[in-house]
Write the structure tokens for this entry.
Amino acid sequence: MPITVVGSVAFDSIETPAGKRERCLGGAATYFSLAASYFTDVRVIAVVGEDFGPAEEAVFASHRIDTRGIEHAAGKSFFWAGSYMENLNEARTRQTDLNVFATFEPKIPEAYRDSDFLFLANIDPVLQRRVRESMPGVKLVAGDTMNYWINDHRAALLEMLKGIDILLINDTETRVLGGNRNLVQAARSVRGMGPRILVVKHGEYGASLFHDSTPKGRGTEFRAPAMLLEEVIDPTGAGDSFAGGFFGYLAAQPQLTPSAFRRAMFYGSAMGSFACERFGTERLQQLARPEIEDRYNHLRELAQID
Amino acid sequence: MPITVVGSVAFDSIETPAGKRERCLGGAATYFSLAASYFTDVRVIAVVGEDFGPAEEAVFASHRIDTRGIEHAAGKSFFWAGSYMENLNEARTRQTDLNVFATFEPKIPEAYRDSDFLFLANIDPVLQRRVRESMPGVKLVAGDTMNYWINDHRAALLEMLKGIDILLINDTETRVLGGNRNLVQAARSVRGMGPRILVVKHGEYGASLFHDSTPKGRGTEFRAPAMLLEEVIDPTGAGDSFAGGFFGYLAAQPQLTPSAFRRAMFYGSAMGSFACERFGTERLQQLARPEIEDRYNHLRELAQID
């Protein structure tokens, strides 16, 4: 079933120990869409500037991603420059130019309104909430956020959280949002804010799923490993790609069973690992479905005893 | 089959956000022995001072741990004081008094010489190597070390590493010893120094196993999760307890199959988690085998998809 995603489509300049790239196609909605496109149809809501041309459009088109919700505005697209020279696990931001994103007002095309799945990538929680409320018919809503919104826009974020089913954030964000250094207690606190399912991304250590107990008696916690990569070329977008694999897989399932969520964690981990293997979205653009299945099976083998 | 372990038996003063304890029984060999004692017979080689009395002896005796290799010397036992007030993942050492440990010369009782399994807990690699060479008949040798030996006693450490089958260290130690920020590459480098099996402990994120490919086609990497604990009372000795559970389980198996190593990782994780639930060795002293099986099954459920 199709997913609608709202978030940033941007240009990124990235420096890592493996090299540099100037102005490559990026943004949370881009990584999410590409990763999810291997599992289901994806529809994007975003805004871009005049620097977004046929080459960028072609990346979406070649993955049959619906871009009718990408508004073209006068000016430049959102631009981010970051470095991972000191720490591959955390970017040091060198420059952020919101450009056309500063006045972004998400507009939902009529053709998107039958979407059953909605993903609210990391943007102003006021906008996330507005999009969510404009699509009351969706069956499952997931979202992301970041420390900036947690620390400085808490009230708006808490309003947004009431309207979503699944939140995907990292360890630090969980601890800060939940107000507790212990991850289990922080996760419980966050789930009390609205999302009945919480996915905490641990970077190179994988990710944890916290949810309610189920009638089938599966545990309420689940942990998926991350790939042990020989080399991380560029970690930009790994979390968004995780979300795309996770939510894309779920959207393609006939039933959202506890086992489906567990498999989705592994597909998320697979897509996050691919994102790290090349700069920007290079690797995500060129995957074949058998490669994804191979990686899923590799991750299973990495974590399964028998 | 019995394990002989050489290492420290000590008194620890510990401060964590959950409280304080003065001079509780500690030391790597103590944590290791208690954890391993739930799986197999354990024999300890260590030195203690006059402050090690009947109460401490009784802890070992109640777990049928052979203490004939614990030498009683004039003076005080090894003493360590540490705090986890800022960071539960890493102790800040406040005081280290080697005391009788400063002149420790391990002596191996005749009764220990038929041990098939040998664990070299974190002590001077010169002593580790001497013990290993004094027991040429052992079938499997595992060891631990720390950054102090890696940085300042590298030559002696490299000699020791040639004589062991399994090394258990943490992420940072692996990266420093292997001379590579990438864990996979660092692990390969460390395994080239001698140990054919490397276990990297990731603290709250679990542990990874690196080993050779096997005829049964299981992968060469395996990752076990850590328990998601509601509260970490005291992480002291968690790594030694992991090693005790891991090596103790292996010593009790009829065959050291790849699956046995994978299960051993889960038992290691189980014992490490118990260590964190009370101060010092309190929790490890009072376990019942069904509790260990319950935790093993909980960890399986935490990580297994189907």
